[in-house]
Amino acid sequence: MKFNKNDSFSHGNSDIKIVDILGKGGQGEVYLVKQNNQDLAFKIYSYDVSDDFRFNIKNNIRKGSPSSSFLWPKEFIEFTDGDCGYLMDLRPKEYQSFISYLTGNTHFKSYRLLLNWCIELVDSFKKLHENGYSYQDLNDGSFFLNPENGKLLICDNDNVTADGRNLGVLGKMRYMAPEIVRGDKDRFTGKEQMPDVHSDRFSLAVILFLALCKGNPFEGECLKKYVLVDEKAEYEMFGSHPVYIFNENDQSNRPIRGYHTAVLKRFPSLPSYIKEAFHKTFVDGLKDRENGRTTEIEWIKLLCKYRDELITCKCGEEYAYGFDEKKPNDRCPNCKRKTRDFCVFKANKSTILLEPNKYIYEFHIDKFSSKYSKPVGKVIINKNNPSLWGIQLKLNQSVTIEDINGRKKTIAGDGVIPIINNLKVYYDQKLIGTIYMKK
Hints:
By secondary structure, the chain is an alpha+beta fold. The protein is built from 10 helices and 23 strands. Helix 3 (111-130) runs antiparallel to helix 5 and helix 3 (111-130) runs antiparallel to helix 9 (296-308).
């Protein structure tokens, strides 16, 4: 069934009017519609979907979205001729496609916002998996980003199913886990391995690598073997003989100089713990799909650490200082200027490098919190005296500070913590950390 502008149909107690067509593809069409004066998107399938597929979407709608980042189906619609589709929220215009970012047409306002996007991406899939789902078809067309604030939207959620089930979609080449490409046998059932949480984790790592390095982790020197990258070539590169381009034990597929420029420029600046997480998934994870791949909570901790360690040079370059590296970054990788002195907030297990507009998040002060992107403090500069810095709080209770001489003071939940050397900070009557100068 196809619609034209100004067509309408009834659903329940409301009328739905077709305003415009937003796009079309192999599965069907997506329309801009109006329901009860609200603009929504409506996807209708161009083929006869199975009963299992219908049941799955209805069940997902009933259970609800695991995270606000998902453009989740809202209402399932069936027509008398058997056609069906669903309503979902519209993607706001300020959100750009991940593909636009990869091609250089869209840029995050800062590197910190890129990391915010990555953290929200991983956290969204953590929640998805905790709710018993697997996405099964992660690819570059599934994600959108707001370059101004680093927010994320995930689309194409109609293939999301309960983990262990599959509705026929295996994924997209270049993002699929190798065992899915090869059609390995499941060690428990003996049947062909279907996408699940473990294959999701592989694909998630590919998306993160693309976000941070702007290159595919398995496309390197191997490309020279093929005149044309056809299905056979893709099967070898991503299925039968995948070699991670930065495999420490196999240098046969390194990035090609002059061709993989972005990867060669970006990868060296990653902290060692991020490199190790990629190596674990793309090397160890090829042999052990269940235990060898970096999990969501591991990625979140590492990416939050990366965000905490960022320092901004006068030239505008953002880079990780590297508190735990064998040799911390004492110079800007761009202009080679010496890294300036800075203050650090050692809060619970986090080490946060303090600079203007840097945020303190709820998980920093509450070790039981999973709010990795909820700000509860922001580094500000005194307008009348730029040498005075502080942390503007946004808490529902006060904190206590203690200076080097043991003098204590209560700071209201919306007050400002002065950034002073050797200042102790207490929250909920417990010492959560210390501010100190790093030289």
